Amino acid sequence: MNVYEAVHSRRAVRGFTDDPVPLEVLERVLTAAAWAPSGSNIQPWHSYVVTGAPLAQLKKVAVERVVAGDPWDDREFQMYPPDLKPPYRDRRSRFGKERYAALGIAREDWEARQRAAIGNWECFGAPAALFCFIDRGMGRPQWADLGMYLQTVMLLLRAEGLHSCPQMAWSQVRASVEEALTPPPELMLFCGVSIGYDDPAVDHIRTMRAPLDETVTFVGDAT
Ligand SMILES: Cc1cc2nc3c(=O)[nH]c(=O)nc-3n(C[C@H](O)[C@H](O)[C@H](O)COP(=O)(O)O)c2cc1C
Q: Disulfide engineering: 187 pairs with which of 29, 87, 120, 133, CB 3.0-4.6 Å?
């Protein structure tokens, strides 16, 4: 698989089979992903890879909390600016519309949306998950490093025939993740990434992208 194929075939998969992901594959992917770039090569990420009984237990605890209506844990970062402006607000709202339409859920059906959201804490059925942490002392450039690292992981997973779903939803129950993984106190959770084999029986949406001239400006006279 070349890089273009990996980029185009990666999507946020929300339905996995329960086929196990071999540990040696995950080790190979994470060994290669360590070559992702970071400012001054500080590699400000720390991943916990969780499978088997510990993952089953974490899913159970998280789902029970969400079903019980437990409040979200105190936020350590805002997932989106509260006053998201156009065009970002429109793109977000379009994504929500497309996702719920594909699930056959009316936008105003809050209960059905909640039920669909619960899939997040079941890792959408995935048998493996990566939880990506960053030191609390890091700044915005290091958060960008984390993004590059995570995309590298997700593309390498494609090269192994695997799919993934990055999930900030896990930060909403971060205390349960911390309890399960006991990271050192200086680390904070950014997101989880569900990892596994795509279940073809689960319908999915293919998100679109803004036209190039909305997000790229070419300057110069190159032809
Ligand atoms: C940092 C990050 C956090 C995300 N969090 C969630 C999440 O909590 N739950 C979810 O279902 N999808 C989540 N997504 C997936 C996005 O919705 C998805 O990447 C986006 O809609 C584009 O679709 P695509 O990845 O299928 O191309 C997240 C993606 C990123 C990059």
A: 133
